Amino acid sequence: MEDRFAGMKLILSIIQTMGVLVAAASLVLSLWGIREQHEWNRRQQALTILEKFNSEVAPHRTAIFAAYPGINDENTNQIPTHEECQTIIKARKPGETKIRGIDAFELRSHLVSVLNYFEDLAIAWEYQVGDQTILEEAAAPVILRWYQVFQPCITEMDKEAGESVWPSLERVVASWEEKRAKPAHKIPQTGYLRLSAAPDGRIRSESEAWASLDGAHLGSDRLVPGNRCLGRAG
Length: 234
Prior knowledge:
This protein is mainly alpha-helical and 234 residues long. The chain has one domain (2-229). The protein is 65% helix and 3% strand. It has helices at 2-67, 82-90, 104-126, 132-149, 151-161, 167-180, 206-213, 226-229, and strands spanning 98-99, 102-103, 216-217, 223-224. It has a two-stranded antiparallel sheet with strand order 1-2. A two-stranded antiparallel sheet has the order 3-4. A hairpin with a 2-residue loop joins strand 1 (98-99) and strand 2 (102-103). The longest helix is centred in the N-terminal third of the chain and has 66 residues, at 2-67. Mean pLDDT is 74; it is low at 189-206 and 209-234.
C-alpha cells in the first residue's frame, strides 16, 4: 500500500514538474513572439519613414538638382561654392538675386526643406523610432553626400542662428562618418554590408549610393530597390 502511495506521489510530482516546464516554455515562446513582433514593427516603421521621406523630399531635390547637378555626379564642378552658399542663406525674398539662373530665395527654401527632412530622419535613427540598420543603410549614403556638398550652407545657417539648426543631423552624420572610416563588416540582422568610404577616402556620390542600394535585402522575403526607399530625382 505504501509503495503504491509513493508511486502515486512520484507521478504527481512528475506531472507538476512537467506543468511548470510547459508554463516556462510557454512564457519563453510568448516573450520571443513579442520581441519578434516588436522587431517586425520597427522594420515596417523604418520603411514607412523612408517612403514618406521619398515622397515629400523628391520635389525639393529635383529643384536643387536643376541648379546643382553635381550633387549626383562628382565628375562635374556643379556644386555650390562658399560664396553661393552665403548668397542662398542670406536671401530673404523672391527675386532679389539668382544663382545659376534660379532664384536664390527659392533655392534656400528647397534646401532648408530637404535639411529639415534629413533632421527628422536623423531623429528617427537617433531615438530608434524605426529599425536603425534599415534607416542607416538606405539613407546614409545620400545624406552624407548632401551634407558634404552643402556643408558651407549649413555652416552659414548655423552662424546666422547662433546655434546648430539641425543638431540631430549633425550628430548622426558624425556617427555615420566615423563608422565608414572603419573596414566594412556584415550586419547579421539584415545581411547588409556597411558602406565604408571609397578607396580614395571620399564619400560616395549619390549615384553610387543608389547603385549600392538596388536589390538591398531587408531581412525578409521582400526586396526593396534603392529607388523605392529614397527615390531618384525626376
